[in-house]
Amino acid sequence: MTTSRPLPLEVRGSTRLPLGMTPAQFLRDYWQKRPLLIRQAFPDFVSPIAPDDLAGLALEESALSRLIIHDEKRDRWQVKSGPLSEADFASTPDSNWTLLVQDVDKWDADVAALLQDFTFLPSWRLDDIMISYAEPGGGVGPHVDQYDVFLLQGLGQRHWAISTDPSAPKDFRPDVELKQLQHFDPDHEWLLEPGDMLYLPPGVPHDGVAFGGPCLTISVGMRAPSQAELTGDLADYLAERLPDELRYGDADLTPAKAVGEIDRAALARLRQAMPFAAGLDDATLADWFGRFITRYRNAQVPVPPDKPVTEAALAKQLDGGARLLRHPWARMAWTRVKRGATLFVNGHAYPTSAELAERMCSERELSPGKKLPAAEAALLLSLVNDGHLVVRKSRRR
């Protein structure tokens, strides 16, 4: 009788296999199932952003940032949300503080380039890249995330502790603004070096603390809408589209046996009157989900140009070698339909071909060139005028 060996919690990556295994093996054995530490997932890794640049980004009005300071002696936590000021950083202690900045991939192209190593996952599953900088002892305390996250060490060292006990209590501390766990009993601990990466599925208690010196950690988070969010958005979607004449009906009504009772027959009619996901056809469900998932958790939206671009003007620019860049806040997905495809961008739907839809989702820069089919040219013009694509003229020597 043979017994299967337990899956390791620690493997070694390489340039060829950053996950320490093929993507198919990772998805089969670890994705949404168990944590995995990958030593040297990115050998000789160099952080794409410096701590000073991250701090500068935290000063921006529209950047999402937090400064967290821990008074270790009194175990008190101070949280300040951005935009931060230079005075905020000047008043920080020598240790036990951290800076968190979300959506850094929307601001920095070098950070966004890291996403190329995660293309084995659906692009619409990605939430953002959050980067944290911490002085020794800095962190956010033990907590639980409700989404998948890859924690890539960028600078310095960070000590990570996790609990793999599925029955571990997950009550929050009532005296802290942060959602910290009231009880945390780790059963695995590691010290991560630059290039090491820790994968955590949803619901795993964990705590990361800067060790020995300054520390920078890159968190690649995956979008995980709750059932409540999905149901609420789907209900709104259906409510906008169901005709008013569709109502609760009881043509089969018989004399009431008890005044005021909502009987089993009434409940059956209610289920028939509320056709949620189980009763939707594929086309309707796909149309709703495409709009929802490209709008979900998007902190900002692209702004249309001040003056609409004409078809002739865009054609002239493209003929002259202009490029079309995807706006950093433009989130895209697509689905096949009977006669082509539907491209979804930030909650809006655009009919197009499957080929162009896939290309739009996979490329951040387009150089269409000359003689575009009329339908494709019309789509690009719409995306430009809606702000999702930005025209960049070619550089002339």
UniProtKB/TrEMBL annotation:
The keyword Coiled coil does not apply. One of its GO terms (molecular function) is metal ion binding. Keywords: Dioxygenase, Iron, Metal-binding, Oxidoreductase. Residues 110-239 form the JmjC domain. InterPro entries: JmjC_dom, NO66-like, ROXA-like_wH. It holds the Pfam family JmjC_2. Signal peptide: none annotated. The keyword Cell cycle does not apply. Its cofactor is Fe(2+). This is Cupin domain-containing protein.
